[in-house]
Amino acid sequence: MQRPRRLRRTPALRALTREIRLSAEQFILPLFIHEGVGDQEIRTMPGVLRHDLPGLLARVQEAHDLGIGSIILFGIPDHKDPHGSEAYAGGGIVQKAITEIKARFPTLTVIADTCLCEYTDHGHCGPLIPDGAGGWTVDNDAALPLLAQTAVSQARAGADIVAPSAMMDGQVGAIRAALDAAGFSDVPVMAYAVKYASGYYGPFREAAGSTPSVGDRASYQMDPAGGYREALREARLDVAEGADYLMVKPALAYLDVMRVVKDEFELPMVAYNVSGEYAMLKTAALAGMLDEKRTVLETLIAFRRAGADAIMTYHALDAARWLREDAGK
């Protein structure tokens, strides 16, 4: 009789031959910064805050002390307009935050979300034009120079990585060319290569104030039922345009897609454990419906098992703390 249980008999035996390991260094902590005064609670994301600059720096210190090596910044400006001009303003809220963070934490990897939706007054990822049917659609080609300008301004402020999330055709190529022309050829592009039009983004949109005022994003974000061919095509295009990382978003509902993309390409894979996925687990845990630590760590292990090299997650602080506590036992 074969007895696999022999290898699972004690915690030490289980740890000895584990294939999947979690580390705080693999986490990317998403952070929101706004231009108001004080930190603000986000109703749909318990435990996550919109920070002012002092609050943001305090949270970054907490992450740094827990061994988290990377953060990604999302900005919420006071002023929004049809072209999202605060996204690429030299004195924009994210640009200011990047400069302050890098001055205090020079070894921390600061990633800038490169998009316009938090900055436009209509909540879309580029300028709008009539769609010919009485509605509106994003002008893809008009968005490209604005996204490129945003990436350059973020790199100039000190961003280590830019992460274009708009899902505009050609965005990675436009950003890569602009970074190179501006002298930032060493700044990598983390491509939101496989990003679905998902219901799991609801809490984020409330947090960032980026819910579209007209229409939706289904014409440029991917169809959840699109299958592997669409995912591989999108990733292949971003690789050809110069992407340095590939991301699958959301992660939890698309583990199979992540595995397929990871097996096809040699670039590092990032899983985005998005706001709705976080809110489901956090709300259930607060209601006493599940063991938060056990379930969160199991979920993060699933991302690693599916091929993620790094995990962007709102659970990062808690998970890093739990891993440190377990290591100290």
From TrEMBL:
InterPro entries: ALAD (IPR001731), ALAD_AS (IPR030656), Aldolase_TIM (IPR013785). The keyword Lyase applies. PROSITE patterns: D_ALA_DEHYDRATASE. SUPFAM superfamilies: Aldolase (SSF51569). Pathway: Porphyrin-containing compound metabolism; protoporphyrin-IX biosynthesis; coproporphyrinogen-III from 5-aminolevulinate: step 1/4. It catalyses: 2 5-aminolevulinate = porphobilinogen + 2 H2O + H(+). Its EC number is 4.2.1.24. One of its GO terms (molecular function) is porphobilinogen synthase activity. It comes from the Bacteria. The keyword DNA-binding does not apply. Keywords: Heme biosynthesis, Lyase, Porphyrin biosynthesis. Homooctamer. Belongs to the ALAD family. This is Delta-aminolevulinic acid dehydratase.
